[in-house]
From TrEMBL:
<dbReference type="GO" id="GO:0005886">
    <property type="term" value="C:plasma membrane"/>
</dbReference>
<dbReference type="GO" id="GO:0008381">
    <property type="term" value="F:mechanosensitive monoatomic ion channel activity"/>
</dbReference>
<dbReference type="InterPro" id="IPR001185">
    <property type="entry name" value="MS_channel"/>
</dbReference>
<protein>
    <recommendedName>
        <fullName>Large-conductance mechanosensitive channel</fullName>
    </recommendedName>
</protein>
<keyword id="KW-0472">Membrane</keyword>
<keyword id="KW-0813">Transport</keyword>
<keyword id="KW-0406">Ion transport</keyword>
<comment type="function">
    <text>Channel that opens in response to stretch forces in the membrane lipid bilayer. May participate in the regulation of osmotic pressure changes within the cell.</text>
</comment>
<dbReference type="Pfam" id="PF01741">
    <property type="entry name" value="MscL"/>
</dbReference>
<keyword id="KW-1003">Cell membrane</keyword>
<comment type="similarity">
    <text>Belongs to the MscL family.</text>
</comment>
<keyword id="KW-0407">Ion channel</keyword>
<keyword id="KW-1133">Transmembrane helix</keyword>
<feature type="transmembrane region" description="Helical">
    <location>
        <begin position="16"/>
        <end position="37"/>
    </location>
</feature>
<comment type="subunit">
    <text>Homopentamer.</text>
</comment>
<dbReference type="InterPro" id="IPR037673">
    <property type="entry name" value="MSC/AndL"/>
</dbReference>
<dbReference type="InterPro" id="IPR036019">
    <property type="entry name" value="MscL_channel"/>
</dbReference>
Amino acid sequence: MSFIQEFKAFAMKGNVVDLAVGIIIGAAFGKIVSSFVGDVIMPPLGLLIGGVDFSDLAITLKAAQGDTPAVLLSYGRFIQTVFDFLIVAFAIFMVIKVMNRMRHKEEAKPAPAAPPAPSKEEVLLGEIRDLLKQQNENPRPPL
């Protein structure tokens, strides 16, 4: 098997395709969460603590000199990233919780009941039917 055929067989496996779809959806979800945190959560939170924009929070380690930019410790961006992470983690937790609840409901469903055993009369009628069928297939010669 050539390298290209081997790679094609690997890439077309269901797990690889599922993983690729998951990564693409995860990246899009990350953008949504970043926008939610940056545009919805952080402005009111900044207003509550005195109009501070978290993304601007930084400590200047070394002031700018000429063409050299200042060296900043941007802890505000870190705080925003932590909020992003917490929201993503909470969303994933809720999805898994719902999936587990659905799985437990499926497991809790009783198994379909086995059909009841035939009564004695049904067993006897079945035996008579089988005997009659045998006689019709192998008739006895007349006496």
